[in-house]
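A student in our group prepared the protein record below, which I am reviewing. Here is the record exactly as it was handed to me.
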Amino acid sequence: MLCPHCAQVFVTFNFCDVEVDYCYTCGGIWLDNGEIEHLIAGDGDGSLRMEPVKVNENKRRCPLCRRSMEKVMMGVGEGVVLDRCGAHGIWTDAGELRKILDAACHDGRRSRLTQLLDEMFAARKDEGGCV
């Protein structure tokens, strides 16, 4: 699959029993339907929902079906604007998955998941990338 942001090939790996498609170039992450829910399962506070939102951003195309994805707001307060293909999954730009996990998970699980994210992307940070 190709990244919907920069058209580079994804690197695929397992993160907490979820197959994550990661773009090493831009730092974005593709999650198939149900995977974000799996990551926050059992720790979500019930306030994280994905609601369609109108924003002045270019629409991206789903890396699987190539259709335009809808913009959705996930989270409480300011939330995070994500790109969602209802049939296939969600796209998170660099750093957005961390924000979602921080907002959704209780302290113990949040620290474990964000520590894993930090460890997995440490090489990218060392090279000056933004995660």
Remarks:
- The beta strands are 11-15, 18-22, 29-32, 50-52, 70-74, 80-85, 89-92.
- The CA atoms of residues 72 and 82 lie 5 Å apart.
- Helices lie at 35-40, 96-104, 107-120, 122-126.
- The longest helix spans residues 107-120.
